[in-house]
Write a structure and sequence with these properties.
By secondary structure, the chain is an alpha+beta fold. It has one domain: Peptide Deformylase. A five-stranded antiparallel beta sheet has the order 1-2-3-6-7, with helices on both faces. Strands 4-5 form a two-stranded antiparallel sheet.
């Protein structure tokens, strides 16, 4: 497997809308290798998810996984999930404040409002259709990754710029309160 180069904020690729991928392209050996490399890249960077466009491949595909992640110790574990051509629909108007970071925006965090429950229709890595509900903090992760596929980074969604902080300052001043908030969300939604 190969670690892929992650695009950082300012790189024009992050502002593109990714294109749909066909079943034939998804099934190709090249795309299947790319998915493996994308997963390895996310794991190496301790990400909770990463979109193909973040590694200079503008296709509508992202991966999500949280497994006792040291970067996000308060997030519930999520099994490795490959999401292709996703369509997300909010199932509620209720939102929560999510203190987000991003592999493409190193050392910066900020608060983004995310829907608490969403419907996700997509394919898996084998082209099998899925239609499921995602709730809680995990729903925020999915929304963050779909934003990437639409050329949006979390910075665009921060409504209060005074919430921007470095990871060090987040750990010092905000982590405990946010972890408690996440704990309540996980109790309520199970994810």
């Amino acid at each position: 497997m190969t670690l892929l180069k992650i695009a950082h904020i300012g790189n024009p690729v992050l502002r593109q809308r990714a294109r749909e991928i066909s079943a034939e392209e998804l099934a190709s050996a090249e795309t299947q290798r790319f998915i493996d490399d994308l997963v390895e890249t996310m794991r190496d960077a301790n990400g909770a998810g990463i979109a193909a466009i973040q590694v200079h491949n503008a296709i509508r595909l992202f991966v999500v996984e949280v497994k006792d992640n040291p970067r996000y110790p308060y997030k519930p574990n999520v099994p490795l999930t490959i999401v292709v051509n996703p369509v997300i629909t909010p199932l509620t108007t209720e939102t929560f404040d999510n203190f987000e970071g991003c592999l493409s925006v190193p050392n910066l965090r900020g608060v983004v409002k995310r829907f608490t429950r969403i419907r996700v229709r997509a394919w898996d890595r084998h082209g099998e259709e899925s239609d499921r509900e995602i709730a809680g903090v995990t729903a925020g992760t999915y929304q963050h990754e779909v934003d990437h596929l639409n050329g949006v980074v979390f910075l665009d969604r921060v409504s209060d710029p005074t919430t921007f902080c470095t990871w060090t300052e987040f750990d010092r001043y905000y982590k405990d309160a946010f972890a408690a908030q996440v704990g309540e969300i996980v109790k309520r939604f199970g994810s």
